[in-house]
Design brief:
Length: about 70
């Protein structure tokens, strides 16, 4: 979910998308992806929701054995 080459690119795209939309988020670790990001003051609920949806998307791709992992 985090260390695979494909998902690594996916997480970087999620981070760049968040940066474009004026997020305070600079980077996130495995712990942040697994448990959420709570050390930020602004929009932490929205960011955690995006992280949750991204994890669900990765899970569904793995569950259905998707040959093509779509970009963010």
């Amino acid at each position: 979910m985090f260390f695979c080459k494909t998902t690594e690119v996916f997480w970087k795209e999620v981070l760049s998308w968040l940066a474009i939309h004026k997020s305070e988020l600079e980077d996130f670790s495995l712990k942040d992806v697994l448990f959420g990001k709570f050390d930020i003051d602004k929009d932490f609920i929205v960011i955690n929701h995006i992280l949750l949806r991204a994890k669900f998307y990765i899970y569904r791709c793995k569950l259905y054995n998707a040959k093509i992992f779509r970009s963010f």
